[in-house]
Amino acid sequence: MEKKNLDWANLGFTYRPIDYRWQTRWHDGAWEEGGLTTDPDITLSEAACVFHYSQSCFEGLKAYTTKDGHIVTFRPDQNAERMQNTCRRLEMPPLPKETFLKALDETVKANAAWVPPFGTGASLYIRPVMIGSGPQIGVAPAHEFLFRLFAMPVGSYFQGGVKPIRIQVAQYDRAAPRGTGHIKAGLNYAMSLYPTMEAHRAGFAENIYLDPSTHTYVEETGGANVLFVDKDNNLIVPKSNSILPSVTRRSLVYVGEHYLGLKVIERQVKFSEVKDMKECALCGTAAVLAPVGMIHSEDGDIYFPSGMDKIGEISGKIRETLLKIQSCEIEAPEGWIRRIL
Ligand code: PLP
Ligand code: COI
User: Fold this and answer.
1) CA-to-CA distance for 240 and 296, rounded, in angstroms?
2) Following DSSP, what letter does each residue of 232-291 receive, concatenated?
3) pTM for the full model?
4) pLDDT class for 160, splitting at 50, 70, 90?
5) How far is the CA of 243 from the centre of ligand 1 (A)?
6) Which of 3, 184, 239, 324 is catalytic?
7) Total number of domains in the chain
8) What's the CATH code of the domain at 108?
9) What is the pLDDT of residues 308-326, one digit of tens each?
10) How far apart are the C-alpha atoms of 57 and 183, rounded to whole Å?
């Protein structure tokens, strides 16, 4: 199979319609068979529930080319499960795990020419999405739903690759105390757009949100979880019920503990402690592991000892190890890699 002729090393993180996507609809209490389509557009009723009441959710995962030329995905069962949890909270019909994985396999296979070659630093980003597609005018869940899974080749999420980024403490809350912070609902991102643009206008790459009840503890950023390395080289992982259970973060914790012998401490992290940390990084499928060089807050700016020029030593090691596991250069824990081709 001949790869597409793209500038793989300079893709950025942007939408690009590629050859195939996969779709199924839910109505009368069941999912249709579903299958591949070439049409990137969706036609909906003006009264579709998603337009008015934001009944929508999504996932994000990646496919990689391995050194020996196979195409693999990373822990897709975790995304399938998380999407089911999200659906339950949003009164949407959970998609069976086998259907999610079938959609993934078929889409990646059909678009194999778009999966970036090994060694380019790029990957195929896969975006499963579900919406309340049925017409609904009273505030209630839709009676029809649409699941679609599409993909595109991407490079770095943040400009500059692994150069440390500057972020700011948001002046807004991301999640209500008993709200939807722990699920991947579209509404969590809608409300983050204004703060995100404010951060960008002020020269910051992202917002870091504090807990919505007390504004004392670190939560996460708009699109990634946060990690710290303390002075004793322990990996400090903020714990909260209102952050997304990131697959990347859970994998990095395992990698830190079992591949690198780090001590991992998962606990609530006060923002007042952050100034004493040695390294800070954001982690997620899109972000992979992006080093943070500086955090701006109303109480002053925090510059981490790892600096603004390069990724910190521990962050660099866990990032490299995870990437090597994802592209099968080093052996993955049981069940992490799903070979597609
Ligand atoms: N937190 C938020 C708010 C996100 O949108 C994402 C991206 O999916 C993550 C964290 C990272 O999660 P994962 O590692 O599963 O991609
Ligand atoms: C991902 O990392 O897959 C996400 O969904 C984050 C998104 C904000 C780009």
Assistant:
1) 22
2) T--EEEE--TTS---HHHHHHHHHHHHTS---EEEE--BGGGGGG-SEEEEEETTTEEEE
3) 0.98
4) confident
5) 9
6) 184
7) 2
8) 3.30.470.10
9) 999 999 999 999 999 999 9
10) 8
